[in-house]
From TrEMBL:
GO molecular function: hydrolase activity
Annotated DUF402 domain residues: 323-457
Family matches, as Gene3D superfamilies: FomD-like (2.40.380.10)
Keywords: Hydrolase
SUPFAM superfamilies in alphabetical order: FomD-like
PANTHER family: PTHR39159, UPF0374 PROTEIN YGAC
Name of this chain's protein: RNA-binding protein
TM segment ranges: none
Pfam families listed in its UniProt record: DUF402
Keyword Hydrolase: yes
Length: 467
């Protein structure tokens, strides 16, 4: 049975679904156990870890042994149906027989890669490990000479000298001494040993057996690779996959969490919105059994809190993995539907997408409607004449503490005297990262945006707010 360790703000929803699907939990925290009705999980270490990313709380990472990681990732597509999806290629920590060029580069799986080696010259053959994979489209692949094999408790590394290292979670000095002694014979063979966090409490016999098995396996791979042609994969490595969650994915996670625990509407988007909003979600979870009509109140709360922001920024996450921050802008007010921002133009140029001159003194009115797939930008001259409208098509807008966040779906709709759909080719370029359901949602949003611009609805709203 596949064992999974779950951490982070989505843990209850993810763990609940995985249990339903027949997975086993491992290394279960006390809080998660209580939320799941006392589930203790397996005492054995996990095959796979699922958690939110340290760099971006909206990203859910799945990482672990390749076969088991793939199974968990495929299962979680049910929980995150609209999230853009990314899988590392080549596999993280996979190893290849390679040959390098004069720039110490090679090509594996059709991808150019940088190679790190103590000595590099054209035509040199070696075994190299993938230490950085291509997850997002703009990522670079990096290999390092050597071979790393991973187990539940230990990693064995050939071709990079010798020594013993420890997970930062292993702090007990007596335990460290035992582990150093256990690895001493292996290290004397010129091999590096890295003890993983699960080694801090495991039986010594289990550690010894895995260490010896991995060393034997690594040595066999090393010898066998001598006769293999360059480009051959010699070790599978790990699975690494990412879901870049959207508002609707978080709402699906809310529904799953609600099966086991009182959960207010928009729980997960509030948890991802900053410390104050996270606290509001915890309070809402306690209130919701007495008042199920909270959705409208959440939107009202968000607009009210953001109206107090002196500076407000828009976090425009791209499908290529990058993030563009727009602003900060000044919040000039709210309506029943919108948060209204204003930015003053300082430079000459051309407004992107509408091909209209940008001049100092122009101003931009931006309408942000929480939970809507549109962010509407109106461009005005210094005298208040509307120059054009640019409508971003996104995942539904999430509101945090003085910021809005969404995933840009690349395609946009503009008005510059006529209504046009632009950047369709950009959507097509990254469409492989989107589910059919997400693509249908984008198509529907584009249709609605065209209709509203053609009717003049958004132009009238913008002019009224700019006056």
């Amino acid at each position: 049975m596949v064992r999974v360790r779950v951490r982070g703000i989505y843990a209850t929803a993810i763990a609940s679904l995985l249990l339903e699907k027949g997975f086993e939990l491992s290394d279960v925290s006390k809080k998660l156990s209580e939320r799941l009705g006392g589930v203790e999980g397996s005492p054995l270490p996990p095959h796979v870890t699922v958690k939110h990313s340290d760099r971006n709380v909206h990203e859910v990472l799945v990482n672990g042994f390749y076969k088991e990681g793939t199974q968990v990732y495929e299962t979680l597509k049910e929980l995150f149906p609209l999230a853009p999806r990314y899988v590392a290629k080549p596999n993280l920590h996979s190893a290849y027989k390679i040959v390098v060029d004069e720039n110490c580069k090679t090509t594996i799986e059709g991808i150019e890669a940088e190679v790190r080696s103590r000595e590099c010259y054209p035509g040199k053959e070696m075994i190299a490990e993938v230490i950085r994979s291509k997850v997002y489209p703009k990522d670079k692949v990096v290999l390092e000479e050597g071979l790393r094999l991973e187990g539940f408790y230990v990693e064995v590394i050939l071709g990079r000298g010798q020594g013993v290292s420890f997970s930062k979670h292993i702090t007990n000095l007596e335990r460290k001494a035992l582990l150093i002694n256990l690895a001493s014979d292996i290290v004397s063979m010129g091999i590096k040993v890295h003890w993983r966090s699960s080694a801090r409490s495991a039986e010594l016999e289990a550690l010894r057996e895995e260490l010896e098995r991995l060393v034997q396996e690594a040595q066999k791979i090393w010898v066998r690779a001598r006769d293999l042609p360059p480009g051959t994969k010699v070790y599978e490595g790990e699975f690494l996959g990412i879901f870049k969650t959207t508002l609707e994915d978080k709402k699906r996670a809310d529904e799953q969490r609600r099966k086991v625990l009182s959960t207010m509407p928009f729980h997960h988007t509030l948890k991802a919105g900053g410390d104050k909003f996270s606290t509001a979600a915890e309070l809402g979870d306690k209130v919701v059994p007495f008042d199920w009509n909270l959705e409208g109140k959440v939107k009202e709360f968000l607009l009210e809190k953001c109206s107090d922001c002196k500076n407000f920024e828009i976090r425009h996450e791209k499908l290529d993995g990058s993030c563009i921050t727009l602003g900060p802008g000044r919040v000039i007010g709210t309506t029943e539907k919108y948060l209204v921002m204003k930015r003053i133009v300082r430079e000459y140029g051309i407004y992107d997408g509408i091909n209209v001159k940008k001049e100092p003194g122009d101003f931009i009115i931006t309408l942000i409607e929480p939970f809507s797939p549109f962010v509407i930008h109106g461009y005005f001259s210094e005298m208040g004449d509307l120059k054009g409208v640019y409508v971003n098509i996104n995942s539904d807008v999430e509101i945090g503490e003085c910021f809005a966040r969404y995933v840009d779906m690349e395609v946009d709709v503009v008005y510059d005297g006529m209504v046009r759909v632009i950047d369709k080719e950009e959507l097509e370029k990254y469409s492989g990262h989107l589910s059919p359901e997400a693509l249908r949602k984008v198509e529907k949003a584009v249709k609605i945006a065209k209709e509203r611009l053609e009717s003049g609805e958004w132009q009238r709203e913008l002019k009224g707010l700019a006056a």
